[in-house]
Amino acid sequence: MPCAATNNAWQRMTDDLRERYFDLPASDQADLLQSLAPVMGRRAEILEKDIWLCQVLDTLPQSTLAIAPDVAVHVPGLALPTAQVSVLSAARTFWEKATLIHVECHRPGQETTTEKAAAADRAASCRARMHAR
């Protein structure tokens, strides 16, 4: 699960509650968040954002990649460690970038194509800085 942080509201919910959370009336969602807030030590508004983010990340495409040392092909008799890791699929990174550009290009108050292009450049630059960390 992408949102496997130890102190995570999404993780604290039962599988059944995760499935039903978005079908609950807003008042029940608010009550649930208020009851989780003291347990989690975070404000209800932040927990709500965590839940939305984790739900989205859980539904976006992922794939599994096998990792092995490069030297393994040159030393077939030596048992070297390997790992299976969950990675972002190419479709996921494409759609995340497309969504960021769409949001930036449709931000209210930007009238000209030049301003929209500049906004798209800012979104791409922001995304690049995030990946560089």
What would the principal axes of the Cα set say about the shape?
Answer: flat
Q: How many strand units?
A: 2
The tally of helices reads 6
Q: Uncertain regions: pLDDT < 50 for 5+ in a row? A: none
Overall tally of structural domains: 2
What percentage of amino acids are in beta strands? 5-15%
Q: What is the terminal separation in angstroms?
A: 22 Å
* Adjacency order of strands in the biggest sheet: 1-2
- Biggest sheet statistics: 2 strands, antiparallel
State the share of residues found in helices, binned by percent: 55-70%
Would you tell me the overall average pLDDT? 75
Rg over CA atoms, rounded to whole Å, is 21 Å
**SSE order:** HHHHEEHH
Give the structural class.
mainly alpha
Search tags:
133 residues, 6 helices, mainly alpha, flat, 9% strand, 58% helix
Structure summarized in a few sentences:
This protein has 133 residues and is mainly alpha-helical. The chain has six helices and two strands, in the order H-H-H-H-E-E-H-H. It is flat.
Structural features, described:
Helix content is 58%, strand content 9%. With 133 residues, the protein is mainly alpha-helical. The chain folds into 2 domains: 9-59, no CATH class; 62-132, no CATH class. Strands 1-2 form a two-stranded antiparallel ribbon. Helix 5 crosses helix 6.
Question: What's the helix and strand layout?
Answer:
Blueprint: H1 9-12, H2 15-20, H3 26-40, H4 44-59, E1 62-67, E2 83-88, H5 90-105, H6 113-132
Antiparallel strand pairs: 1-2
Helix pairs in contact: 3-4, 5-6
